[in-house]
User: Fold this.
Amino acid sequence: MKAIIISIGDELLLGRTVDTNSAWLSQQLAGLGATILAHVTVGDDQAETRDAIDQAARRADWVLVSGGLGPTPDDLTREALAEALGAPLELREEFVEQIAGFFRRFGKEMPERNKVQAMFPIGSTAIENTCGTAPGVQARLHDAEVFVMPGVPREMKIMFERDAVPQLSARSGGKVILTETLWTFGQGESTVAARIADLMERGRNPAVGTTAYDAKIGVRIFSGGNTRAEAERLLEATADEIRARLGALVYGRGEETLADAVGVLLRERGQTVATAESCTGGLIAKTLTDVSGSSAYFLSGVVTYSNAAKTALLGVPADLIAEHGAVSSEVAEAMVIGCRGRAGADWALATTGIAGPTGGTAEKPVGLVYVGLDGPDGCQVREYRLGEHLGRDDVRSRSRWAALSLLRLCLLGEKIDSTWSRVPRPCGGTG
Assistant:
């Protein structure tokens, strides 16, 4: 099966809203054995939408359209579909009642304008929307099945799974494509790829590829099989081989994050962590507490952005800051030791650096960050030179991942080796 996904809306075309519908639909279609030919984005224009649907139906077996089914004048997908089909719109009273009933559940009267949502091309099949006011439409155009669904993600997902999936599954012949991503941190994409080069050869099933995102390297696996069980078996065998080759570089799978991995390890050991942040501004604490249940191991976090705060809240000597500067391994060491002692945590992380775009010097350029880690066996400070080419957000984000990775590797008892780390420095404290 070949499929094309079309997303409708000026907000998508102009980049004001991120198109998550297409990504989700692609994942679902791949799992059903479909080949995705293209993602198409069209603004709120009837002629452009008509042409996009017509062209897609000439190329694909399935055309999945989302958006443009609302009641306002710029919602023109139903008109565009009718024009592509060469069929006029007709009002279907049963859907007028359904839409009115939706409003009544909230104690409201249906605005007259919403009646347009009960208009469907003659000969098409209307699809009930159980959680919104925009019904979907299914129609046959050329040799393709066209599904038009609401742009609201929740409404689209329910409609797709309930109405489209059974038909897609029946026509797929049982063939399945499964996808998964293993996430790594600590080495560059080329290094990761070199260690799994033979698994990335073209024509292999499962197919393997790499992708870089926010300093993390993902290893993608695409596994095909005549049955789901066969595709799963092949996928898991390849995933196991990748883990064996990359070792502790692999921290998670699918939606798992570095914070998830750290949380699991802390829970297993019954240990706790606290943070003291300067350049990252609380980002590490936020990332740790994004994980549900993190109160079991995260004790506290302080943002000591000013020198005075470092002294008052963490006990960093003022003369130490004056001698070495706030961005220094010495201050990072004092921060992390002070943080762990005051919080009473098993582990503590601290960051101080120059996120930019201003504040850098020849000696201490933008992107220079020190990460301190204090734990049961003592502490260490590591220097990272992330690069002056990075923007402020990138420096802060990568510093966050470097800190969490450092903690994770220490919890695992692994030798720490990072392409970013230039000066691993043991601290004077013993914990």
